[in-house]
Amino acid sequence: MKPWGEWRVGDALETNHLGEVTRTDVVRYQGASGDMNPIHHDEPFARAAGYEAPLVVGMFQAGALCAWAAGIFGPERTRRARIRWQARVWPGDRLVFTGKVTARHEDAGESRVEVELACHKDDGELCVTAWMTFAGPPA
Amino acid sequence: MVDRAAEGSAGAPFEMEIERGKVYEFASAIKADHPAYFAASPVAPPTFLTTTFFWEDRVPGANPWAAVKMDQRRGMHAEQEYEFFGPPPRAGTKLTCRSTITRIFDKSGKRGGQMTFVVMETEFVDAEGKLVARAKMTGVETAPAPEGE
Asked: Most CB within 10 Å of its CB: which of B7, B30, B146, B149?
């Protein structure tokens, strides 16, 4: 892991290829999170609502993206995660996570690193944008 | 259709405990592998507080979102934010949580249709009364299609 003090504005995080999202991933996430909306696992329900298939829970890819970045800086350093959904994800889509450092500053006696994250499908479509703040000892 | 009278509605407080097995389960489900999520006293992943689903449904009146009456066929999760006022909570932390509908506002969509945004904030306070985290959920309801309805 890169030492906290060595992160610089513009540094890129090492790209993470999450791979294919399966229906089993969706079912497991729904059970773990408690969001049991049938539109994410019940095929007839999803079709009746106008979708071709159950869509993946947005919080699955958002949660995976943010936990991946937190794992790079240290989960206990997480101070903020802001998520914006850009496109729907379907079972079978393959996801790729990228990120870069956008700012370093001091706040509340801690040094802060701001990071911008993106989740794309492997065909290039942007699905999620997220912004995270991490805190460390004063510089 | 969103009921604007829901703005300012506050839910009843509800308890939530960060549990070790639940953190393992959630971290596995989002394919996280950092050892901090699987330690003897694991730290909650950044979006773990979404598991309030399991706690608020047990307390009548805890979830003010019901008062919003958003049309689920036209509604979606637009944005979500978690703010932590120190390290995210670890397993064993007992939190008291309370949700409020803080804002309802309109915006014009890219194709001219009206969109109604609803913001719900949830505050998480520990046993010592310290504010540990704040969650902010933004839902959006798009305008009905010009035909039909």
From this structure: B30
Q: Which residue of A has its CA nearest to B83?
A: A80
Are A79 and A119 in contact by the 8 Å Cβ rule? The answer is no
ipTM (interface predicted TM): 0.96
CATH number of domain containing B51? 3.10.129.10
User: CA-to-CA distance for A40 and A37, rounded, in angstroms?
Assistant: 6
Q: Which of B27, B37, B53 sits opposite A35 (nearest CB)?
A: B53
Q: How are the residues of chain A apportioned to helix, strand and coil, as percentages rounded to the nearest 5?
A: 30, 35, 35
Determine the residue among A56, A66, A110, A119 to mutate to test chain B binding: the one whose Cβ has the most chain B Cβ atoms within 10 Å. A66
Q: Considering CB atoms only, which of B32, B51, B83 is closest to A33?
A: B51
Task: State pLDDT tens for residues A108-128.
Answer: 788 999 999 999 999 999 999
Task: Name the pTM for this structure.
Answer: 0.95
